[in-house]
Amino acid sequence: MATKPTKQQRQACEHFAEALFLITEGARLDGRGRLERGDLEEIVRRISDACSAFGADEIIAGTLERRCRALGLPANTAEMLLLLEPGIPLLELLRQPDEVLKEQVAKLEEELGEV
């Protein structure tokens, strides 16, 4: 039987998600540095090794939530992307330029409006 994460473990996961957000945001802002997919995968692997109660997917999901909030997107945007865009690897959502992510969200919202 799995145990429920402690408050400190949840807080640690939030800190790891924030750290990953800052790394990916810094890479996008710099624009000239290299943060390739393999580099990001290694960073996530190391972060998730340090997080005993949560895996890489939970950390990345928290990072995506922060990114969507920082872009001023609706609160449910990260969850919508995770559910409706399963073909896009989570790390790619973190690496995309801001405008590309906003366009992708707008397209999804438009498609959902048609349903």
Observed structural traits:
115 residues; mainly alpha
Would you mind describing this structure in some detail?
The chain is mostly helical. The protein has one domain. The protein has 6 helices and no strands. Helix 1 packs across helix 3 and helix 3 crosses helix 4. It is globular and about 40 Å long. 23% of the residues are buried.
Q: How is the secondary structure organized here?
A:
Blueprint: H1 7-30, H2 37-50, H3 56-70, H4 77-84, H5 90-95, H6 98-114
Helix pairs in contact: 1-3, 3-4
The number of distinct β-strands equals: 0
Gap from first CA to last CA: 40 Å
* Spans of at least 5 consecutive residues with low confidence: none
Rg of Cα set: 15 Å
What would you call the structural class?
A: mainly alpha
Largest sheet: none
What's the gist of this structure?
This protein is mostly helical.
